[in-house]
Amino acid sequence: MFRLLKMQRSFIVLLITIPFMTILSIVIYTEYIQTKEDVFKIIKEHLIDEKLHLLENYSESVSSNFDINIKKSFAADEELTLEYEDKLRLIEGDEIKYLYLLHKDVNGDFRFLIDATLDVNEKAEFNQKFNPQTEIWNKAYETGEVQIVHQKELDQLWVSIAYPILLERQVIAVIGADFTYDVYTQIIKTLNPLESLYSYVGVFILLMLILAYILMYLYYKTRKKSFIDPLTQTYNRQYLSEFLERSSLKNHHIMMIDLDHFKQVNDHYGHDVGDEVLITISQKIKNIIRKEDTLIRFGGEEFILFVYKQEIRASIDIANRIRNTIKNTVIHTDMNQISITLSIGVNPYPFHAKNIEEAIKIADEQLYIAKSSGRNRVEVFNDKEKESSSSSKRISDIHLAIDEQRITCAYQAIHSSKDRKIIKYEMLMRLIEKDGKIVAPNEFLPSIRNTHVYVSLTAIVLDLAIKTLKEKDCEVSINLDIQDLLNDDLMQLIKDKLENEQNLAKRLTVEILEHEEITNFTMIKKRIDFLKSMGVLIALDDFGSGYANFNYLINLDIDILKIDGSIIKNIEIDKPSYQIVKAIIAFAKGMGMTTVAEQVETKEECDILCALGVDCVQGYYLGRPEFDLK
Question: Given strand 170-182, what is the order of strands in its sheet?
Fold first, then answer.
């Protein structure tokens, strides 16, 4: 209790002293800077006014003794040139760096009439071309008005002046002057009283800061407790930001660890037993890892493990040791003996990610793969997959889009080939940017396909499909990856959404698309049978372009076959494509399947497909996706 009170007192003192010192420092420093700027302004105005007066006198002398063709006068009389060069040099002082008289020739180029520079190595010759670094020379020539550019460089004021010489309202030449002025001494003299005050205040602030840091040290000694999960005694999620402030991802491998079927433990034995399981599992993991490794309870039954400076093989061995230890552990609770397994996703290359969020996402993707592939597994991110793991849409962008309800679907009609009437709509997921830009799923789904966010997106699409079926007298289809059928969470989601809506499920088609070859054929078949038992129709999407073959059609209970658009393209001139489509349609008819031709873009393609006997057609020729269902 005493330590708690001490921590609270320290925190209150910090809340009072640190803001006070910060505000005081800002006020003093602001006054100091403002005073310095005022001094610069005074000196600058005085210096420029003085030089402008001298340049004005010189300008009047030139304009009263020369005509418009000033260049010709200087070219014809060398003594006259030297005389006005000497007059120009009279303006010079210690601060003047360059003085010259410029004229614009018929080609619009500036050329020297006079250069008063004393250094012969830097001095320009008569009629030598002058290349201006700024636009003030052209502006002075065009407007007939004085142009001034000034800037501070450390303790010096640098000024460039372009002073036009007018004769009969026409600019006949421009005086150029570049000069600097050492203002350091004047500023110090002006600010001495304020400097003294600032020094006293600075000493006071220093003493207060020392006191504040002492109190902060006492506070942070006790604050460490706030980073510990009270149940498992591992670090908690709040500690993650603290850990990243003092650690580099270059020195760690990241593991995402999740207990398999932990919800069933809580449901069958109660949360008290579940807590005992979590305590035991976390202690077992801590016994395996080293002191320099960091275990964080990320949420629920999920943990993050940062493995410090190991070879990749060694980190994988740690992951497998953890998995095997837990698999062989029997947890004894009151009258219960519980065995549980866990799945682990490993990211050995977190330093390749854009940020920690991206690095954790990659480990989470591997965890998702491990759980989708049967659980009790370790999945390791392959270095060759780094490029494919990047995406224009990060997981945080999609989280935000979900929260702001910017995930929606467009509807593309599927037409009967006989009468061209609409028989169904395919729902195509879209992400709407804050500026209204529409983003197609291929730009954001790859980055989240193996994460829990993917399930959230599927839930949104299912809700939209159910809402559409309730409000409209139509049929709709939605898209799933064939590997989604192996995902227990997704299948449970579909069951929860449609189990009590079987009258709607009969008007729903699930279009299955492959991204990789089927490796668990038996489970895929069971999941398809489960969907069909609820009344859902099954379509095999993009047939003819991926891994799918005729063996799939024989062994899987497919209702609809969608012929890939890459085969449809140029079918009117591509004989092999024509024969392939013809064979697919004939085979599908023999199997009692409905055929749909995708990406039909021309009348010629549509006519040929209808002549071949395809049942339905879909594509831009018949209608583009629309957000409003007609």
Answer: 129-130, 110-115, 96-104, 170-182, 156-167, 147-153
Distance between CA 43 and CA 48 in Å, rounded? Answer: 8
User: Count of CB atoms within 10 A of residue 423's CB?
Assistant: 15
Residue 365 has pLDDT above 50, yes or no: yes
**Cα within 13 Å of Cα(1), Cβ side:** 0
Contact 596, 616 (CB under 8 A): yes
pLDDT digits (tens, 9 = 90+) for 262-320: 888 888 888 889 999 999 999 999 999 998 999 999 888 999 999 998 888 888 999 99
Cβ atoms within 10 A of the Cβ of 433, count? 12
Task: List the end-to-end C-alpha distance of the chain, in Å, as a whole number.
Answer: 68
Is the CB of residue 43 less than 8 Å from the CB of residue 181?
yes
Q: Indicate whether this model's pTM tops 0.85.
A: no
- Which helix (H) or strand (E) segment is 173 a member of? strand 170-182
SS (H, E, C) 342-379: EEEEEECCHHHCCCHHHHHHHHHHHHHHHHHCCCCCEE
- Average pLDDT for 139-152: 84
Residue 248, Cβ neighbours under 10 Å: how many?
A: 9
The number of C-alpha atoms within 13 Å of 252 and in the hemisphere containing its C-beta is 23
Distance CA 574, CA 568 (A): 9
DSSP letter assigned to residue 481 = E
pLDDT (mean) for 440-463:
80
Pair 149, 68: CB distance under 8 Å: no
Q: How long, in residues, is the chain?
A: 630
In degrees, rounded to 5, the angle at the alpha carbon of residue 196 between the alpha carbons of residues 191 and 201 is: 120
Span 517-547, pLDDT tens digits = 566 778 888 999 999 999 999 999 888 765 5
Cα–Cα distance for residue pair 239/243, rounded to 1 Å: 6
Residue 84 and residue 60 in contact, taking contact as beta carbons nearer than 8 Å: no
Q: Are 545 and 561 in contact (CB under 8 A)?
A: no
d(CA 226, CA 413): 56
Mean per-residue pLDDT over the chain, rounded: 82
